[in-house]
Amino acid sequence: LWLMTDEQRTDSLGCYGSPWARTPHLDRLASQAALFETAVTHAPVCVPARTSMLSGKRPHETGVCWNTGQEGPWNPLTHIFRDHGYQTATFGKQHYTKAGVFDTTVGMVLSDAVHYFGYEKGYDEARFDTVKYPGERWQWLFGGRFPEPAENTTEFQVVDAASDWLEQRDSERPFFLRLSFNGPHTPVVPPAPYDTLIDPGEIEVPGAFSPPDDGAPAWEREFLREQQGSHLLTEAQLRRAHQCYYGLVSFLDDQFGRLLNWMEQRGLLENTIIAYVSDHGTHLGDHGMMQKQTFYEPVVSVPFFIRAPGGTGCRLRQPVETLSLLPTLIDLAGLPVPGDIAPLSLGDTVRHAREPQPRAVISEFSQETWDYRPDDRLVMVREGPWKLSLFYRGPDTDPFSAWSDGSLYNLDRDPLEQDNLIQDGGCRPVVSRLVEEIQARE
Hints:
alpha/beta; 11 helices; 26% helix; single chain
């Protein structure tokens, strides 16, 4: 059972230490699971992240580095389950380009009441305390209340559809089932009472109301903030956006809990591996931005935990990549893991509740969606406390040249990533070593 969300931050779950989160069902599941405290997405953008998660290949290997216009030469790892007799199905948000990834695919993303940028005709937005981004290009809906009963949300309907599929399947064969919610991605409109469940005064998003640091890379300062800068929202709007975002996660928690309780009553969890993950996180005013497409921690670090039957609940500190999801599930299911992805498996870590071997983690994407430097790939590498990001052009990349436009942060000393050390001469050996890590993964 693979449970998935879109654009979810770790601070939206109690199991990741958030004091304002209201997520009892997922917290309970996480207490029985191997929880990765630092799980890094391989791409801070939807389609590259989902494609890579399904293939076990990085964006530069799949050819899918941005959200639009690519099919990509990749093969889905879900076929390994199908080829070994599993019934495979996915319900909810898909957001990848290849057909036939699961035997049964039911796409369910948005309801008939609300779309990404507003409410459908017939609904008075003024009634729902909405927050709409006032940018020229995009008017994302960052806050509001769903105008219908909870039963009419897509997430509620995804759980119902998946439950129906479980009842109708061949009970003599194993299943591989994915539920993929659009939330807490925009439109961030939880149904009542979830839109006011959490007092916005309880919520602390570090730096959400502070001006962004001027030492950030130029592509971020001069381009990205013009597209999605939080400076266009008032503090009151940001607080309402926070309230709706974390309230929506609480609603999603109840929906996942509804499914898990239904399955438990029917004995369907006793021999079922359960994985929980998001494709990437998002900004909520921190670093002066909304949305994703950066390498800051609220965007690249996502919830990720796996419960194996008979496994031991544990918390693991060593950073890992969510690219490991399917290699690990294949391994835990006792199926043959292809040799080229075998090193990604965290099967032994989950089985024995022990830290994985230290390994640098990588994330990458391109700004082709925005038509900004489309021929240059943005790559991040994290090793120990160090996090480097830059535009990467291959083995001849000079990380100290002006065009590389990078950043270097020491997360031990600077957890909020405000002091960019890329031009610090004393850090040149660190930068060179991290670039070698990128080259080793090419």
